[in-house]
Amino acid sequence: MSSWSLFGRIKDMSGHSKWSTIKHQKAIEDNKRGAVFTKIAKKIHIAVKKGGSGDINSNPFLRACVDEARAVNMPMENIKRAVDKGLGIGGVDNSEEILYEAYSREGVGILITAVTDNRNRTASELNLVLNKHEAKLGGPGSVSYMKTISPLPLIKLDELSKENVEALLEALSSLDDVVEVWSNIDK
Asked: Are 178 and 105 contained in the same domain?
């Protein structure tokens, strides 16, 4: 089915070389991996600040983040760079962890953990996504109390509402500064 081009490369049915197709697919996969590495690096950075140490043996927060990084084959060089950034080696760092609380239009509580160096930019990006999905930011403690209740109050939704909430959660997760999104939706 494939034919040879003048330059000796095999072309696929659309007339493009297979290398061109592979190159584009690889670029997409690399971008996805990079986004995952960035989120984990931010978690490592905050774990170092929380634990006060860059040693994984004395900092349980850091140990959990490094295990997560190893699970997705993050290079050790990237892990070390994130630890150094958390320790303040190589420059001033003013990143901070912020917890945002929101409610979807279906009444689902959402906790959004973000690591940012610019609170206003992050809040603006979150508000944009929340407004697009008809959700609203809540006040401090409006959702976080649910994580302390046992058993946790889960919300059951019909299929359409569940799809809407999952689209909102996916949109929030895709933001650069957001490292974790939690909700009380019953899966």
From this structure: yes
